[in-house]
User: What shape does this take?
Amino acid sequence: MTKSDDSPKEEFKKAVYNSFRALGIDDFPAKLMSVLQSEPDEISLGELSEMTGYSLSALSTTLKAMEENNMVKRFKKPKSRKVYVYMDKDLVTLYTELQKKRYNQSLLPFLQILPRIIQKYSDRTEFENEIEMLEGFQEQLRFLDDESLKFIEELEKWRDIKG
Assistant: This one.
């Protein structure tokens, strides 16, 4: 007899959870994503609540945010009051969306503000060393910008070819 966590599905769920946590996704959404990725079809909120131990209210709130970020789809079936959730099994698209979000929320704002900081203080000699350091940092950011955009473009190409 096998333990309940001794199956390909359970090991897959753990691996998905760990992967999403490593990407910086919070515990609760990572757990939901691991369950949803391991389910071949949609799952009702009630079933999801039973599987995860989270309340319907907590699930609904988190799933709404995930849906707004195009990570899951929530819907009702005809003639049913139940709400169902489905997560596309296209990991490349999911990963692409996560990369875009990171780029837009972290790298892009930094790229926009750093030149203003440098310009504001560049003519003041007391900040010469700091400006030099920031210019080196800016060079690295430009490299990361170029490579991030190339990476996102390659992910999208692969998805379009396979999709």
